[in-house]
Amino acid sequence: MATPTDENPNLLTVVARMTAKPGRERDLRSALEALVPITVQEDGCVNYDLHVAEDDPATFFFYENWESGAKLDAHLAADHLVDFASKLEDLLAGGSEGLVIQRLNRIK
């Protein structure tokens, strides 16, 4: 099965991880699901896939690919992401520190 970086290994891959506060799992999931249709329309977004941990329904991941770091930075500054970021203290275990974003470059 092909991945986006099979066709373009220069894409910037992002994995974002976050865990909901106890009792806020549904709220976080809804907020994350609402980001998807907006984000996939953004310039430079190749894919923006939301996942939930198989063994922990409170932990969510985005697997994303972007045409460049600048396009990702524009996404992170977009109104819908700024609005979502304003809710992190209420939704995430660890507040805003509970969101871990890792930028990855494909090696092989």
Automatic annotation (TrEMBL):
Keyword ATP-binding appears in the UniProt entry: no
Keyword terms of this UniProt record: Monooxygenase, Oxidoreductase
Ranges of residues in domain ABM: 12-100
SUPFAM superfamilies assigned: Dimeric alpha+beta barrel (SSF54909)
Superkingdom of source: Bacteria
Annotated GO MF terms: monooxygenase activity
Name the UniProt record assigns to this protein: Antibiotic biosynthesis monooxygenase
Source organism: Actinomycetospora endophytica
